Amino acid sequence: MSSTAPVPRPQSVDLTAACEASSVRDILQDLDRSLIGLAPVKARIRETAALLLVDRARRELGLASAPPTLHMSFTGNPGTGKTTVALRMADLLHRLGYVRKGHLVTVTRDDLVGQYIGHTAPKTKEALKKAMGGVLFIDEAYYLYRPENERDYGQEAIEILLQVMENNRDDLVVILAGYADRMDRFFASNPGFRSRIAHHIDFPDYSDAELLQIAQTMLDAQGYALDGPARAAMAEYVTARRQQPHFANARSLRNALDRARLRQASRLFEAGRGPLDAQALSTLTEPDIRASRVFRGGLDIDRPSA
Amino acid sequence: MRLRQGQFSFLPDLTDQDIHAQAQYAIDQGWAVSVEVTDDPHPRNTYWEMWGHPMFDNPDAAAVVFEVNECRKMHGGKYIRVIAFDSTPGWESIRMSFIVNRPADEPGFRLVRQEGEGRSLRYSIESYALREPEGRRYA
Amino acid sequence: MNDMSDAKTVTDAKKRYSAGVMKYAQMGYWEPDYTPKDTDIIALFRITPQEGVDPVEAAAAVAGESSTATWTVVWTDRLTACGKYRAKAYRVDPVPNSTGEFFAYIAYDLDLFEGGSIANLTASIIGNVFGFKPLKALRLEDMRLPVAYVKTFQGPATGIVVERERLNVYGRPLLGATVKPKLGLSGRNYGRVVYEALKGGLDFTKDDENINSQPFMHWRDRFLYCMEAVSRASAATGEVKGTYLNVTAGTMEEMYARAEFAKSLGSVIVMIDLVIGYTAIQSMAKWARDNDMILHLHRAGHSTYTRQRSHGVSFRVIAKWMRLAGVDHLHAGTVVGKLEGDPATTKGYYDIFREERNPMALENGIFFDQDWASLNKMMPVASGGIHAGQMHQLLTYLGEDVVLQFGGGTIGHPQGIQAGATANRVALEAMVFARNAGRDIWNEGPDILRDAARTCTPLQQALEVWKDVSFDYVSTDAPDYAPTASVAM
């Protein structure tokens, strides 16, 4: 019914102005400021943003017609910032006009694959529909593919995903995420995905210094601080924790700090002497850190999988 | 005969882009959008078959266009409409309804008159398509 | 304003009830410190006292004459809880930008009224007092009806929501037309107009207020031919169609008989005129609810008391009474058409019809917060001098829940009635479509209509014929308060 009148085509474009207008620069600067480390990731996002800006400009001038493929894979170990960056990416794509709403829907295999015949297609479609206008983030995407079981319903979800990724390119962007090596094997056995993914971004592990800085930032946000000896203990903790199983970068740090706060609370409670000032309430001390099993070469007690 | 039910039946058939725009309006009002299909277009046939549940949690109308097209694959020869439900107090009813798919041939309705006392008549209308049983109409 | 009178209520009982004449303000009808109770009915009058009459005394007199008072002191007051039954004028404000006029706020105890009876309410509030000599003029501007009172009424028999469900029409204004000429068509010719208009795309056609049962067309003929037309149009379009069959007659018995006949023929709607009176309206509303029928009310006669700014009853008050009384449709102005209607005032009326709660909005002439306690909503009807070329203005001013009646704009179309109806329907659908799709219809309206006319010749012709028709006259009933003004309560 709609008859869109032809808009006269411009003769030139101003990339700087386009960049300002879409406030892409703000997002990139915010990314730089608020995310510690991740230099290669930031560089890749900057490149992607530039590519999309140029692509949009080319289409305005009539140099290109088809919208680019935007599906991505984010590979890296747990706790390296994939979900956080996916949120920013959704915002970026929205501001550049590549998705209409810019929300992020995070799912895993359980959200897509059903338990019985006829269960999977509605679940997968439901997830895709929710993500339309934004970004669908499939964490540990390789679990969708279970070659050892040829009747596995994951295959059905994969087929629907591929179809929608192809036919509804204007409606949503899919980001597949997980460990690098397993994602590589997944792509090798599912060439359909490989060919539909245009952007691969690898998330490296954080260095010890970066992790320590992340710990500081997390504590700042909660209104806590480490005293001198505690900071030294924390540095040792980072080095030791990395050698132990189930290391999950920033996520491990968050868990460690949560437990340290618990210990601080019981320490203050049990000491029970006189009134406490603000500083006492918000300082973590060396024993709060050193009590961790990590220093005894063992796995930390709870959350073994974190 | 062209069935004139719905908000936009006097306009040319809606494109997918049109459907998206109208459904997005409904979503932006906070209404849940639903797709329904029938082979019995009688004006008082209230309950068309539901094509899935109303979409309560889809921020973008691409989801509606997607379902309309899924429904067309199965029921392309029938009437399909998009409706929007408003759950706010004082409404709790439908706020939009428009046809997005119709059979290639629409035979229309027969007016049946039953003579009564004096000059009185009782009227009923019947879809010609309903001479066939469900599932074989608009074949 | 509250210090403008030296009148004080006489509290010494012996003095208060000694025989003779006393100022109303002294008798207890002026209570500047009174805070109205949640259950009080409040009336706002515009009073114009005679020269030399103190406005507070005038307000107290209105309170007195519309409640318990008579011209002289009566000792029998003392047999009653008279303090409760006296209406209380509690506030008098000068009307902005006018001299000699005052707004008087008067509170009435709920026990002064019988529940569920507009007749009883009006017998008090507008019963005697409008002829009262110390006043030059008196106008009832607005009323606050407490929830406890609202709940004693049925309210609209069908309401907007269920009317739409019955008609299977959502998301756009309904379209109607009054059959013209108003008088003289035979039943058979009359039905022709109905058929053409409905088949062309209207939802409703309508009898005019004075079409009842005259020598040129007796009512049964009209009903029979009209229902043939409605049924044929319904079969031709697959839509639910209706025609407002006017059942107004000389007696209730006759109105019931006509309504029953309309029902037996399958009509979805019947119509009555305001001139049948409040009790008859309430009876028909009850009948309509009992018989699954939509009830259309034509406000015939209202301008005799609603139009003058200084005397009478504001239409917003009539609208409130009609929502209580239980009609489904009521004419409420078009803003852009040939009949009286300032945009801000008209918005006030529409809000009274359609909202669950009306907050005070002086710029729309609404003086009180009014809660409708889940009474059904009334469908406003816009009729009189409107045409397809104004569709963007109509949709912007009046919104979606309204019946747009294009009488002349349908029947006067150069290519005939069907073409006229189609032009209106296409214009309407195109405008709603464009609004939903995010276009600025107020400014782009004419372009949207021109685009729609490319695939619809009847619309093209309609736009051409009526392109210069507009009715720009100064309104006689604009609000007294500018949009930004706020008045201390």
Automatic annotation (TrEMBL), chain A:
Keywords annotated in UniProt: ATP-binding, Nucleotide-binding
Pfam families per the UniProt record, alphabetical: AAA, AAA_lid_6
Highest taxon, organism lineage: Bacteria
InterPro entries on file: AAA+_ATPase, AAA_lid_6, ATPase_AAA_core, CbxX/CfqX_mono, CbxX/CfxQ, CbxX/CfxQ_RuBisCO_ESX, P-loop_NTPase
Ranges where the AAA+ ATPase domain occurs: 68-207
Family indicated by similarity: Belongs to the CbxX/CfxQ family.
PANTHER family reported for this sequence: AAA-TYPE ATPASE FAMILY PROTEIN / ANKYRIN REPEAT FAMILY PROTEIN, AAA-TYPE ATPASE FAMILY PROTEIN _ ANKYRIN REPEAT FAMILY PROTEIN
Entry-linked NCBIfam families: cbbX_cfxQ
Name the UniProt record assigns to this protein: Probable Rubsico expression protein CbbX
Species of provenance: Salipiger marinus
Automatic annotation (TrEMBL), chain B:
Pfam family, one: RuBisCO_small
Cited CDD domains: RuBisCO_small (cd03527)
Chain ranges of the Ribulose bisphosphate carboxylase small subunit domain: 4-103
GO MF annotation, one: ribulose-bisphosphate carboxylase activity
Keyword Cell membrane appears in the UniProt entry: no
Source superkingdom: Bacteria
SUPFAM superfamilies attached to this UniProt entry: RuBisCO, small subunit (SSF55239)
Xref: InterPro entries: RuBisCO_ssu (IPR024681), RuBisCO_ssu_dom (IPR000894), RuBisCO_ssu_sf (IPR036385)
Keywords: Calvin cycle, Carbon dioxide fixation
GO terms, biological process: reductive pentose-phosphate cycle
Subunit (UniProt): Heterohexadecamer of 8 large and 8 small subunits.
Protein role: RuBisCO catalyzes two reactions: the carboxylation of D-ribulose 1,5-bisphosphate, the primary event in carbon dioxide fixation, as well as the oxidative fragmentation of the pentose substrate. Both reactions occur simultaneously and in competition at the same active site. Although the small subunit is not catalytic it is essential for maximal activity.
Protein family per UniProt: Belongs to the RuBisCO small chain family.
Additional information: The basic functional RuBisCO is composed of a large chain homodimer in a 'head-to-tail' conformation. In form I RuBisCO this homodimer is arranged in a barrel-like tetramer with the small subunits forming a tetrameric 'cap' on each end of the 'barrel'.
Name used for this protein in its record: Ribulose bisphosphate carboxylase small subunit
UniProtKB/TrEMBL annotation, chain C:
Binding site for Mg(2+): K206, D208, E209
Function description: RuBisCO catalyzes two reactions: the carboxylation of D-ribulose 1,5-bisphosphate, the primary event in carbon dioxide fixation, as well as the oxidative fragmentation of the pentose substrate. Both reactions occur simultaneously and in competition at the same active site.
Keywords on record: Calvin cycle, Carbon dioxide fixation, Lyase, Magnesium, Metal-binding, Monooxygenase, Oxidoreductase
GO biological process, one term: reductive pentose-phosphate cycle
The gene coding this protein: cbbL
Catalytic activity: D-ribulose 1,5-bisphosphate + O2 = 2-phosphoglycolate + (2R)-3-phosphoglycerate + 2 H(+); 2 (2R)-3-phosphoglycerate + 2 H(+) = D-ribulose 1,5-bisphosphate + CO2 + H2O
Modified residues (N6-carboxylysine): K206
Note on cofactor: Binds 1 Mg(2+) ion per subunit.
Record-stated family: Belongs to the RuBisCO large chain family. Type I subfamily.
Cofactor: Mg(2+)
Catalytic site: K180 (proton acceptor), H298 (proton acceptor)
Residue ranges of domain Ribulose bisphosphate carboxylase large subunit ferrodoxin-like N-terminal in the record: 29-149
InterPro entries, per database record: RuBisCO, RuBisCo_large_chain_AS, RuBisCO_lsu_C, RuBisCO_lsu_C_sf, RuBisCO_lsu_fd_N, RuBisCO_lsu_N_sf, RuBisCO_lsuI
UniProt-listed Gene3D superfamilies: Ribulose bisphosphate carboxylase, large subunit, C-terminal domain, RuBisCO large subunit, N-terminal domain
Short name of one Pfam family: RuBisCO_large_N
Organism listed in the record: Salipiger marinus
Site keyed Transition state stabilizer: positions: K338
GO molecular function: magnesium ion binding; monooxygenase activity; ribulose-bisphosphate carboxylase activity
Signal sequence, renumbered to the chain: none
Extra remark beyond the main annotation: The basic functional RuBisCO is composed of a large chain homodimer in a 'head-to-tail' conformation. In form I RuBisCO this homodimer is arranged in a barrel-like tetramer with the small subunits forming a tetrameric 'cap' on each end of the 'barrel'.
Ribulose bisphosphate carboxylase large subunit C-terminal domain sequence ranges: 159-466
Name of protein: Ribulose bisphosphate carboxylase large chain
Taxonomic superkingdom: Bacteria
Subunit text: Heterohexadecamer of 8 large chains and 8 small chains.
Enzyme Commission numbers on file: 4.1.1.39
